[in-house]
Amino acid sequence: MKNETQGLLLEFPLEHYRFETAGEASSKVKQVVRQLGVDAQTARRISVCAYEAELNAIIHAFGGRMVVRVLPDRTELEVTDEGPGIPDVEAAMREGFSTAPDNIRELGFGAGMGLPNMKRSADEFEIKSSLNTGTWIRMLVRY
Amino acid sequence: MEKYYHSVRLLNERCIGCVSCARHCPTEAIRVRGGKARITESRCIDCGECIRYCPNHAKTAVTDSLEDLQNYRYNVAVAAPSLYAQFDKNIPVSKILAGLRTLGFDKVAEVARGAEIATAALREYLAKPGIKRPVISSACPASVRLLLVKYPELIEYLSPVDAPVEIAARIARSEASQDSGLPLEAIGVWFITPCPAKMTAVLEPIGVGKSALTGTISMISIYGELLKSISGLATVAETPMASAEGVGWAVAGGEANGLDDAKILVAHGIRNVSNIMEQLALGKLNDVDFIECLSCAGGCIGGPLTAVNRFVAENSIKQRLKRMRAEETPESRLPVEAEQVVLALREGRSIEPRPVLKLDDDIVVAMQKIELIDDTLKRLPGLDCGSCGSPTCRALAEDIVQGTASETDCVFRLREMVRDLAQEMVNLSEKLPPSLTTEIGMKDPIEPSRLRKNRMERG
């Protein structure tokens, strides 16, 4: 963790199919913002953003990383993965749309709520995806 | 800092300063300092886990006693279904209630009856559109307090239905006032409690202005006397009013049992309760209507103030319930009145979170502290042994940064520091004064008088 213009920088590597680590990054982020005194509802939004991003990368990508910048007035989350990319981003933003394979859905994941949940929880949401290369998501939550 | 009432206390003379309680505390509220366990009041949720795990019985729950009955002109005992589970299934509820009366109560009331009303109120609430789902049960006071301390973002999910014991106490108080002709305040209403959290809930209620209970009496403290009085009973004048639906609340899953069509999760054991709340906070529980949360494993029969092993109790209450269900008919059940349901629902109440995690009022200072905590944590061994008196290495790192502990409290760090110091001493001991060294040190300053003398000799 480094201090960067009055902020905290947290970095998490995300590994394909490592479900046992799912939730670790988001709970760390949540703990940090709660310790800073960010109110409970906002902290929850930040942790939902982090959790869904974490899970997406674990399910779909071949690996990636999440960089979280915690600043005095906002938290920025940036997730970059190397993976298949999203063929139709607009469709993927619709609730219930899922490309998760059956074995993942059987585990109770991949309900097609990931991207919509991120968008709903964040104040700013940007996504760029290119096929067979990967996906980049940037989210911002203000306190 | 705000002052909170707590039922859970430390008996100083019994505490040997081991860290069992600190390591089992679900909210990391305990630190061992100066050889004694100290409870951080703002974090304690009165779950009683420390009472359960203290090998020296140094943790205790402050409850009232039978002597306190003397302060009231008329006394009512409120009996929970978990009390029935402390007795053999062949001892009828009527006999347990009658036995309780002989301990000095004028009247007895059943929490199970309150539970039936709570179930009806809960059904009504769950049928409402637009409520936050899943609804989290607010029957267990320790679970509610855990939510306030660790998951305040979930406050709006809490059920607005009064706990069964509150409902039963309110009815009992008003009935007792009518029976005796005494004013409501002259009546002592006492809950025979399986846990310390209920005591706290009486003195510091959440979401209820004032509890209808006067106090609580620990189940285990009267168990011996109650057993004796029950076995000596010849005739029994009590008629139990509650059905199996209400009595079933003694065991985990009992509350959910009355909610026929709802999709339900039952979490019992304080760590499981915490986990399920965590899942909900992450937005993962989409297809659930209701979560029953019970701090004690097995439900109230697993309470720290119960007398009988919880598995034995579970077996006995399940057999009792089986018999009750076989004997019940729709006509034999006392109906729940609409008015009672209205009274039990407290929608629109405001509940305050407990901000215990914040490191500093100034967010920039808090950020610096987080960095310091991280740096400090890197130097700690990560064994979470608890020898320092803090429950984990991370907790110690926080305590160090917050100024309540020192790095030397860690035995491993202390050993490292001693080793470094010893090394330094060895290094120093090898340094000899110039008069004893064989080589003439080039660094030694040369006195001008010596230089002059040398020149004269040569010259």
Can you walk me through this structure?
The complex is a heterodimer of chains A (143) and B (459). Chain A has 143 residues and is of the alpha+beta class. Chain A is 35% helix and 29% strand. In chain A, strands 1-2-3-4-6-5 form a six-stranded antiparallel β-sheet, covered by helices on one side. Chain A is globular, with a radius of gyration of 14 Å. Chain A starts with a strand and ends with a strand. By secondary structure, chain B is of the alpha/beta class. Chain B contains 18 helices and eleven strands. Chain B is elongated, with a radius of gyration of 31 Å. The mean pLDDT of chain B is 90. Classes of the chains: A alpha+beta (143), B alpha/beta (459). The interface between A and B is medium-sized, with 26 and 25 residues.
Instruction: Count the E strands of chain A.
Output: 6
Largest sheet of chain B, if any?
4 strands, parallel
Instruction: Report mean pLDDT of chain A, rounded to a whole number.
Output: 84
Runs of chain B with pLDDT <50, length 5+?
A: none
Question: What sequence of helices (H) and strands (E) makes up the elements of chain A?
Answer: EEHHEEHHHEE
The number of strands of chain B is 11
Proportion of beta-strand residues of chain B = 5-15%
Structural class of chain B: alpha/beta
How would a textbook summarize the main sheet of chain A?
6 strands, antiparallel
What letter string, H or E per element, gives the SSE order of chain B? Answer: EHEEHEEHHEHEHHEHEHHHEHEHHHHHH
Q: Roughly how much helix do the residues of chain B carry, as a percent range?
A: 40-55%
Report how far apart the termini of chain B are. Answer: 84 Å
Specify the structural class of chain A: alpha+beta
Assembly form of the protein: heterodimer
Strand order across the largest sheet of chain A = 1-2-3-4-6-5
Question: How many helices of chain A?
Answer: 5
- Cα Rg of chain A: 14 Å
Report how far the terminal alpha carbons of chain A are from each other.
Answer: 21 Å
